[in-house]
Amino acid sequence: QVQLVESGGGLVQAGGSLRLSCAASGFTFSSYSVGWFRQAPGKEREFVASISSSGATTRYADSVKGRFTISRDNAKGTGTLQMDSLKPEDTAVYYCAAQYIRLTVVALTAADKYEYWGQGTQVTVSS
Q1: Sequence-separated (6 or more) residues with CB below 8 Å from residue 36
Q2: Which of 11, 32, 51, 107 could pair with 57 as two cysteines, CB 3.0-4.6 Å apart?
Q3: How distant, in Å, are the alpha carbons of 25, 26, 36, 52, 85 from that of 98?
Q4: Mean pLDDT across the stretch 29-52?
Q5: 123 contacts 90 by C-beta, under 8 angstroms
Q6: Mean pLDDT of 38-47
Q7: pLDDT digits (tens, 9 = 90+) for 112-127
C-alpha cells in the first residue's frame, strides 16, 4: 500500500541544522509532486516547500527561503528537506506529502491538492 515515512526530526539549538527524509513506497514516486508542510501547536498546517516530479521546479514559503532546501532522489524513492539556520519559530511537526501529477514541472503548494501524507516528525528548535 501507499506509504510515506518521515525521519530526521529532533531537538536542535537555534542556528543549527536538521535533515528530514521522506521514504516512499507503494507507488511510482517519480510521477508525484512532493511537498513538505508543518503544523505548530494551535496553528493551521502550512506549506513549507515542494518539488515537481522531475525535480526541475521547487517552491518555498517565504519564511524558509534561503534556509531550507528541498530535493528528491527518484531512483531511491526518497524526498529530503535540508533545514539550516533554524529558528525557534520553525518548531512544528513536519509532514511530507505526495500527489500524482502529469505535468513533470509543477510543484504543488496547496495542502488540499495532496492525497498521500506521512505521519509527521517533530522538529523542536530551542532558543
Answers
A1: 20, 22, 48, 49, 50, 70, 79, 81, 94, 95, 96, 97
A2: 107
A3: 11, 12, 9, 10, 26
A4: 97
A5: yes
A6: 96
A7: 999 999 999 999 999 9
